[in-house]
């Protein structure tokens, strides 16, 4: 009893440590994925990884010990039965062996049902997250029934596969639960047919051994199913954790390269704040087994300090891909990208925190009153702040739900300007605002005094 208690305590402690570590690994992996690889996994899938799959993988700690201890207990009990009824126990053992293929077939069906159930669970969690993220819009347009039907449909499919799995579990447990009864019936029958007499000592000893077999025999199918679940979940986690990460080494900081390349140009040649791209070929995905599809081919570009360069092209011409390649979000097939200095990137779809407007601009940096006021004026956020009840401390909602598209774009721009980086990459940020505001931002923010001696690269499809 003492040893069993210590075993349970230490095993529970080990499982808790493993679970915490694996959840942390899954979370950190999510932060390290590039944009292209991150799009392969929905939020629902990642949440399932951190909850269901981690738990099932950790449960292998129990199953591994049970997998070797239960057969040992069964073998020892069978040997003791042999000492009591000689070879008569083989008849009961034959019944057990016959049931093994049946349970193997059931276990295979359980694994298939589990995979389908997990897939439907991922879709349901993703749908529920989408519904909660836009619950205000759903309520305003009275789409409650529509989204409820969508959610219930996914839940029904999940429950359908879950029911299939539970029915198979029941059959598996039934076969193994009846094994001791069949074992004793056939053993005593064959023992009597062989001409031996059944005395009280033999019967009660055998019954005690049969009862000893009940626990491992009944638990063994659960151990098998648990190990199957652990293998499935570990494969899902392996597929996720083996995804290539955002490789920051593709952005090489080398002032020597910059000096050599720009030694013949201007007086700012010794300032390392620049970006150099040589014969670059990039692809979005690096996991494909076939030849990767090259998005950018033979791109060469040199950005010196203080220059403002606009990339003008049609929608889908690769402007955003070029900016993403500079910040390391694309997989480099050939060529090189060399970057010196800090880089601020303002995407087309702004990333907004659930907090106040000021918190989104500062983003952990110290508050500088003068620079803060200059930035919000340059981005015309002062007018919006004046109309808010709480000013810049107003809560803007999750993902900026309380802001318009133009306000979110200007907020992302203000954040980049406030952090005073060396290189600025603007991904078509003027398309979300009207022409008057765009002219103001271009004059006061992008070309303003706070951007002097800053390297800027702007992508746009607007020729004006």
From TrEMBL:
<dbReference type="Pfam" id="PF00664">
    <property type="entry name" value="ABC_membrane"/>
</dbReference>
<keyword id="KW-0813">Transport</keyword>
<dbReference type="InterPro" id="IPR036640">
    <property type="entry name" value="ABC1_TM_sf"/>
</dbReference>
<dbReference type="GO" id="GO:0005524">
    <property type="term" value="F:ATP binding"/>
</dbReference>
<keyword id="KW-0067">ATP-binding</keyword>
<dbReference type="InterPro" id="IPR050173">
    <property type="entry name" value="ABC_transporter_C-like"/>
</dbReference>
<keyword id="KW-0812">Transmembrane</keyword>
<dbReference type="GO" id="GO:0008559">
    <property type="term" value="F:ABC-type xenobiotic transporter activity"/>
</dbReference>
<keyword id="KW-0677">Repeat</keyword>
<feature type="domain" description="ABC transporter">
    <location>
        <begin position="275"/>
        <end position="463"/>
    </location>
</feature>
<dbReference type="GO" id="GO:0016887">
    <property type="term" value="F:ATP hydrolysis activity"/>
</dbReference>
<keyword id="KW-1133">Transmembrane helix</keyword>
<feature type="transmembrane region" description="Helical">
    <location>
        <begin position="171"/>
        <end position="194"/>
    </location>
</feature>
<comment type="similarity">
    <text>Belongs to the ABC transporter superfamily. ABCC family. Conjugate transporter (TC 3.A.1.208) subfamily.</text>
</comment>
<dbReference type="Pfam" id="PF00005">
    <property type="entry name" value="ABC_tran"/>
</dbReference>
<dbReference type="InterPro" id="IPR011527">
    <property type="entry name" value="ABC1_TM_dom"/>
</dbReference>
<keyword id="KW-1278">Translocase</keyword>
<feature type="transmembrane region" description="Helical">
    <location>
        <begin position="76"/>
        <end position="100"/>
    </location>
</feature>
<dbReference type="InterPro" id="IPR027417">
    <property type="entry name" value="P-loop_NTPase"/>
</dbReference>
<dbReference type="GO" id="GO:0016020">
    <property type="term" value="C:membrane"/>
</dbReference>
<keyword id="KW-0472">Membrane</keyword>
<dbReference type="InterPro" id="IPR003593">
    <property type="entry name" value="AAA+_ATPase"/>
</dbReference>
<keyword id="KW-0547">Nucleotide-binding</keyword>
<protein>
    <recommendedName>
        <fullName>ABC-type xenobiotic transporter</fullName>
        <ecNumber>7.6.2.2</ecNumber>
    </recommendedName>
</protein>
<dbReference type="InterPro" id="IPR017871">
    <property type="entry name" value="ABC_transporter-like_CS"/>
</dbReference>
<dbReference type="InterPro" id="IPR003439">
    <property type="entry name" value="ABC_transporter-like_ATP-bd"/>
</dbReference>
<feature type="domain" description="ABC transmembrane type-1">
    <location>
        <begin position="1"/>
        <end position="229"/>
    </location>
</feature>
<feature type="transmembrane region" description="Helical">
    <location>
        <begin position="200"/>
        <end position="224"/>
    </location>
</feature>
């Amino acid at each position: 009893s003492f040893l069993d208690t210590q075993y349970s305590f230490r095993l529970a402690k080990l499982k808790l440590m493993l679970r915490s570590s694996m959840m942390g690994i899954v979370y950190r992996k999510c932060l390290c994925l590039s944009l292209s690889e991150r799009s392969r996994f929905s939020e629902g899938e990642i949440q399932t990884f951190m909850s269901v799959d981690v738990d099932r993988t950790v449960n292998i700690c129990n199953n591994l010990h049970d997998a070797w201890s239960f057969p040992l207990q069964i073998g020892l009990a069978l040997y003791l039965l042999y000492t009591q009824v000689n070879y008569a126990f083989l008849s009961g053992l034959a019944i057990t062996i016959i049931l093994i293929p049946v349970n193997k077939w059931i276990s295979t069906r359980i694994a298939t049902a589990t995979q389908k159930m997990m897939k439907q669970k991922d879709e349901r969690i993703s749908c529920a997250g989408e519904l909660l993220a836009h619950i205000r819009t759903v309520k305003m347009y009275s789409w409650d029934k529509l989204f409820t039907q969508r959610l219930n449909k996914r839940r029904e499919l999940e429950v359908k596969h879950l029911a299939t799995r539970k029915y198979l579990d029941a059959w598996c447990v039934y076969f193994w639960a009846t094994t001791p009864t069949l074992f004793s019936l056939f053993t005593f029958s064959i023992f009597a047919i062989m001409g031996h007499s059944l005395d009280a000592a033999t019967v009660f000893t055998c019954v005690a051994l049969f009862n000893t077999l009940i626990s491992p025999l009944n638990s063994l199918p659960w151990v098998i199913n648990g190990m199957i679940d652990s293998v499935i979940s570990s494969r899902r986690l392996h597929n996720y954790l083996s995804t290539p990460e955002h490789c920051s080494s593709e952005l090489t900081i080398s002032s020597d390269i910059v000096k050599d390349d720009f030694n013949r140009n201007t007086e700012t040649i010794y300032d390392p704040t620049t970006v150099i791209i040589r014969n670059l070929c990039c692809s979005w995905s690096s996991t494909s087994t076939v030849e990767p599809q090259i998005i950018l081919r033979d791109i060469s570009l040199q950005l010196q300090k203080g220059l403002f360069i606009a990339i003008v092209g049609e929608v889908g011409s690769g402007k955003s891909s070029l900016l993403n390649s500079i910040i390391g979000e694309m997989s480099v097939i050939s060529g090189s990208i060399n970057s010196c200095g800090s880089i601020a990137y303002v995407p087309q779809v702004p990333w907004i925190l659930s907090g106040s407007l000021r918190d989104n601009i500062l983003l952990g940096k110290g508050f500088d009153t003068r620079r803060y006021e200059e930035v919000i004026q340059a981005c015309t956020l002062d007018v919006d702040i004046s109309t808010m009840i709480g000013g810049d401390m107003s809560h803007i909602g999750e993902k900026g739900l309380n802001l318009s598209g133009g306000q979110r774009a200007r907020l992302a721009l203000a954040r980049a300007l406030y952090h005073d980086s060396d290189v600025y990459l603007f991904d078509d940020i003027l398309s979300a605002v009207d022409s008057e505001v765009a002219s103001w931002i271009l004059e006061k923010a992008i070309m303003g005094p706070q951007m002097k001696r800053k390297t800027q690269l702007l992508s746009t499809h607007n020729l004006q």
